[in-house]
C-alpha cells in the first residue's frame, strides 16, 4: 500500500502519522514493524532557488545545509 504523509517534528526526531483508516485496513498494531520507502515529493531545485520571483535575499549555504540535513535524516530512517 502506498500513502502520502508529511514529516512532523517529534521531540528531537522526525515522524509520520499513519492514518487510522490505513492502520485499520492493514491491521497494524502498536509495536508492529513496517517497512517505509522514502520518496521526496518536492523538487530540489525549488527548495534551493524558490518557485517565483522574490525580493527576499536567500542564504544559499543555509538552504543547502538544510537540504543535506534532510538527506541525513532520511538515511537514518532507512
What does this structure look like?
The chain has 78 residues and is mainly alpha-helical. It is 38% helix and 8% strand. It contains three helices and two strands, in the order ββααα. The radius of gyration is 16 Å and the shape is elongated. The model has no long low-confidence stretch (mean pLDDT 77).
Morphology: elongated
Question: Roughly how much helix do the residues carry, as a percent range?
Answer: 25-40%
Number of helices: 3
How many domain modules?
1
**What low-confidence regions span 5 or more consecutive residues with pLDDT below 50?**
none
Label the structural class: mainly alpha
Main pleated sheet: 2 strands, antiparallel
Strand order of the largest sheet: 1-2
Number of strands: 2
Portion of residues in beta strands equals: 5-15%
Q: What's the Cα radius of gyration?
A: 16 Å
Straight-line N-to-C gap:
18 Å
Overall average pLDDT: 77
Question: Helix and strand succession?
Answer: EEHHH
